[in-house]
Amino acid sequence: MRQDASYFEGHEPILVYIAKRLKDALRLEGVLNEAGLDYGVEADQYYGGFLFRGERTGAFFYVLPDTVPAVHRVMRSNGYRPHEGDR
Q1: Residue 87 located in a structural domain
Q2: Does some domain include residue 19?
Q3: Within a domain: 37
Q4: pTM attached to this predicted model
Q5: pLDDT, the chain, mean
Q6: Can you give the residue range of the structural domain that contains 54?
Q7: In three state form, how does the secondary structure of the chain look?
Q8: Percent of residues, the chain, with pLDDT higher than 90
Q9: Which of 3, 40, 46, 66 has its CA 20 to 30 A from that of 59?
């Protein structure tokens, strides 16, 4: 279920996905909600593009460290490629 910032207080949230389109973000929210997994989401900036590289806004999905394996499993089974590594 979607959580607010207070849910992550005292913990280091782990970035698991950057949705570049609203439709993609809404679909992932549905997948995570259906699986009963807690997550946080916020709008943030990322750099994208090939020929016209620039700063864009996306939906950044975060989870607590102990739920990363379960979230990655659910994401992969629904066609998502989890973010791994640095932002």
Answers
A1: no
A2: yes
A3: yes
A4: 0.90
A5: 93
A6: 5-77
A7: CECCHHHHCCCCCEEEEEECCHHHHHHHHHHHHHCCCCEEEEEEEEEECCCCCEEEEEEEEEECHHHHHHHHHHHHHCCCCCCCCCC
A8: 82
A9: 66
